[in-house]
Specification:
The protein has 2 helices and 52 strands. Strands 1, 2, 3, 4, 5, 6, 7, 8, 9, 10, 11, 12, 18 and 19 form a 14-stranded antiparallel sheet that branches. Strands 21, 22, 23, 24 and 25 form a 5-stranded antiparallel sheet that branches. Strand 22 and strand 23 form a beta hairpin. By secondary structure, the protein is mostly beta strands.
Length: about 850
């Protein structure tokens, strides 16, 4: 048994002593990340002595100057691991308990019970005399002052960002380096060299490859793993996957590569381009108790789309805050006085962040300044940089512009004259506000609704029309003025004036509590190009045949456009008789009992101006047809491609949710538990008649829910699919090429799937050990940079150096924005 002293440990060492980071290949280059880590050494601390934030401290390699065994050439320490590089081999020390001593991996003297796992990684057939050198010299040095004997002290030890073994195999170099505080290594294969010669001999753990292709290392004190290699090449703007997997035989591990173009580079791990907080500390509750959110969160399954990007890489966020000292710049509205005096007041805001994440282009409050609430839920941006902010408010003084479609909040009938009744009467209306590119002027601003209307999502087309989706919970009596009904247009699928409900023998004329809506504003905000309701008043009971006293609520959660301006809408419903169209994938909801969970739905509309009595192209339910456990499916996000395919994500608790053969994860849960708590991602064909593919994601462990919230979904021009949500269990959550160490429960996740839904190309958690974080927005640009927004109740997310706001503001809830960038190696000719 090796004798090792210990260093600080990774989280939950018995279950994850070695945090799972990606195996990878780049330019015929094999790579695997070893462990999470934060090491703060001499020269890498802030002036006050505190460790610098995530992204600010590079992992480093110490040249061996006598601080460890003379056979070791370089040493790297991180949180929970130590790596010792010797000729042709490496020793990976996985620590269990803290200690201040320096480890000697080559000392075989027994020292009592093992508190550490040591993995000996030896390259079979490698050149033990290969030249080893450090490069990327760092400014920091390392000092060891151990004991009273100055002769044993070591100071001024140089540190390097990389260590290279030249020609470890013929034509193959081995490079160790740190990437965002993660320890990684690459095999760089020169033209004509044989990558099949690379073989790791791993001693100290039982080696196997699991069903996902991850390399599992069963060490005495707990398991560790390397993620399956995930690779792709770029051909112009098209991303092409490359096969790569581990092959384990006994103690030996090889890499098996599929066919690829040796003249093209392969893409390596994504890196964290920036992370910044957004918020402020002071509110009427106290000087450090304010909360700032991106999007709107009601504690349910939905993570909102409160983020958008423009073609220059600027990020736009919308949300709500009770902070009266929110950062503002070039603002339309610099403050909301009510936030200083009324702890119940809430204001919306709109903020534009520069492409580097280092500063604000503009930031403005958006509210009426009354003792009421305004919530920003979704944002879109047009080609000119105008921002379209959407949400809902009960503030009658919320700013509107002359000539806007609706300038009065609420709809009280005062002798035939519409009068505002928001605020004191607690009526809520949606709002749409268009800000000019400077953020200092309203192009237009309008309310939407009668008495209870909530806008949840917005999209904008090239003509400047704004498309909003949401939900209403109100009644419309034919004997009252039309302004008391939600506004619909003549070609609506369902109008507020032709719905009725019968319940317990009573008829409520024109009642529509719990309908979804889709509304399209003309470009100047003065009128409606289209508006319709979608829903049914009967609750899901006995396959929708029996009326129920409970209303069949239908929500509209997400709206999207494709390049042809076809309109796509999704949400979930308890309604038994949605206006489904013929030939769709699922024409009826699941046959169930009262109080069952809801069902998803998908609707597609033809472009505005296409004519006809209705624009509805199809409407289908989406969920299990039969589920004896009566659990729910919540469709929360939608996107579309140029061919008219719809991409839907959400959460299902049903083991019966429809998936397709060959998908990434077609099954959920175990027979011992009724529910899943898992994400779904599905692709529906242009006619809505069939699923092209459907997969689950984030399969829970036992009866523990794996995914706590889903929302945004994006698709790039090559039909790769991106999703964001909130993960409950972290230690077995599927991650590929992750950008941070696995930390704690309740984190944001971002994931990318290939075009047929069979492979997980990228997946990472973003969060920390403490508190809870959840997603609040997602966008992907033409260069495949991923932008994600989230919220949290603790400083678990670690901002990058130079970010706009690097310190967690106050003690309440606060928001963050992250940009994740793919990195391509220089082209290597093979």
């Amino acid at each position: 048994m090796f004798n090792y002293a210990q260093l600080p440990v990774c989280p939950s060492p018995r279950t994850s002593a070695l945090t799972s980071l990606p195996g990878r290949i780049a330019s015929a280059l094999l790579a695997a990340s070893l462990c999470c880590g934060t090491i703060a050494h001499a020269g890498s601390r802030a002036a006050d002595g505190r460790a610098l934030a995530f992204g600010a401290i590079p992992l480093s390699f110490e040249a061996n100057s006598g601080q460890t065994d003379p056979r070791v050439q370089f040493v790297s320490h991180g949180e929970g691991f130590s790596l010792f590089l010797a000729p042709g081999e490496a020793y990976l020390n996985l620590e269990q308990v803290p200690s201040a001593a320096v480890a000697n991996p080559l000392d075989r003297a027994p020292s009592g019970p093992a508190t550490v796992d040591t993995l000996h990684l030896r390259l079979v057939g490698a050149d033990a005399n290969a030249a080893v050198s450090g490069s990327d010299r760092q400014s920091g040095v390392v000092n060891y002052f151990v004991g009273k004997d100055p002769a044993k002290w070591r100071s001024g030890i140089p540190t390097y960002g990389k260590v290279s073994y030249t020609a470890i195999y013929p034509g193959i170099d081995l490079v160790f380096y740190g990437n965002q505080q993660q320890l990684e290594y690459d095999f760089v294969v020169a033209p004509g060299a044989d990558a099949n010669r690379i073989v790791w001999q791993i001693e100290g753990a039982r080696v196997s490859v699991d069903r996902r292709g991850d390399l599992q290392l069963a060490a005495p004190n707990g398991p560790a793993s390397f993620k399956r290699p995930v690779l792709y090449q770029m051909f112009g703007n098209k991303k092409v996957s490359v096969e790569g997997r581990y092959v384990a035989t006994g103690e030996q591990v090889r890499f098996r590569l599929g066919a690829y173009d040796h003249k093209k580079p392969l893409i390596i791990d994504p890196v964290l381009s920036y992370v910044t907080y957004f918020g402020a500390p002071a509110s009427a509750y106290g000087p450090v108790n304010a909360s700032t959110f991106i999007g709107y969160w009601d504690g349910n399954y939905v993570n909102w789309q409160g983020l958008a990007i423009d073609k220059a890489g600027n990020v736009y966020i919308i949300g709500n805050t009770d902070a009266f000292d929110l950062p503002v710049k070039d603002a339309y509205q610099t403050s909301d006085p009510a936030l200083k005096t009324n702890y119940r007041a809430t204001a919306a805001y709109v903020t534009k962040i520069n492409p580097e994440g280092t500063g604000l282009v503009y930031s403005t409050y958006l509210s009426g300044g009354s003792q009421d609430n305004t919530y920003g839920s979704s944002i879109a941006v047009d080609a000119e940089g105008n921002a379209y902010a959407a949400g809902f408010t009960d503030d009658p003084n919320f700013p509107t512009t002359p000539g806007a479609f609706q300038t009065i909040c609420g709809a009280f009938d005062n002798n035939g004259v519409r009068t505002a009744n928001c605020g004191t009467a607690a009526s809520v209306n949606g709002f749409v506000t268009k800000l000019d590119p400077t953020g200092s002027k309203l192009v237009y601003s309008t309310f939407l609704g009668a008495n209870q209307a909530f806008i949840n999502s917005i999209a904008v087309d090239s003509e400047g029309r704004a498309y909003v989706a949401g939900s209403i919970n109100d009644y419309c009596d034919p004997q009252v003025p039309a302004f008391e009904c939600f506004p619909t247009t003549a070609n609506a699928v369902q109008s507020g004036l032709d719905t009725s409900i019968e319940s317990s023998g009573n008829t409520y004329y024109n009642g529509y509590p719990g309908f979804a809506f889709l509304t399209v504003f003309i470009s100047d905000g003065s009128g409606l190009a289209y508006s319709t309701l979608l829903g049914d008043n009967l609750y899901l009971t006995g396959a929708g045949e029996t009326p129920s006293d409970t209303f069949g609520t239908t929500t509209g959660f997400s709206v999207a456009l494709n390049s042809s301006n076809e309109i796509f809408l999704t949400g979930y419903t308890l309604a038994a008789r949605l206006p489904v169209t013929s030939g769709v994938y699922q024409s009826k909801p699941q046959k169930t009992l009262p109080n069952a969970g809801p069902e998803g739905y998908v609707a597609k509309f033809n472009p505005i101006g296409s004519g006809g009595s209705t624009l509805l192209a199809y409407l289908t339910y989406l969920g299990p047809v039969t589920d004896p456990n009566n659990v729910g499916t919540y469709a929360t996000g939608i996107a579309a491609d140029s061919a008219g395919n719809a991409y839907i994500d959400g959460i299902t608790n049903s083991q019966m949710f429809p998936t397709t053969k060959g998908s990434y994860d077609p099954t959920c849960g175990t027979p011992n538990f009724d529910e899943c708590g898992v994400a779904f991602i599905a692709k529906l064909n242009p006619s809505g008649s069939d699923l092209i593919w459907s997969t689950l994601f984030g399969d829970p462990v036992g009866d523990a829910s794996g995914v706590g919230g889903m929302g945004p979904i994006e698709v790039d021009e090559d039909e790769n699919v991106y999703v964001a949500g909130s993960a409950n269990g972290y230690y077995l959550f599927p991650q590929v090429n992750q950008i941070q160490p696995t930390r704690g429960n309740g984190q944001v996740f971002v994931a990318e799937f290939n075009p047929d839904g069979s492979k997980l190309l990228f997946s990472t958690l973003i969060g920390g050990l403490a508190g809870t974080q959840w997603a609040a927005g997602l966008a992907v640009d033409r260069d495949r940079n991923i932008y994600v927004a989230g919220n949290g109740n603790s400083p678990g997310v670690q901002p990058t150096k130079g970010a706009f706001l690097q310190k967690y503001p106050g003690q309440g809830y606060n928001a963050f924005v992250a940009k994740i960038a793919p990195v391509a190696l220089p082209q290597v000719q093979l």
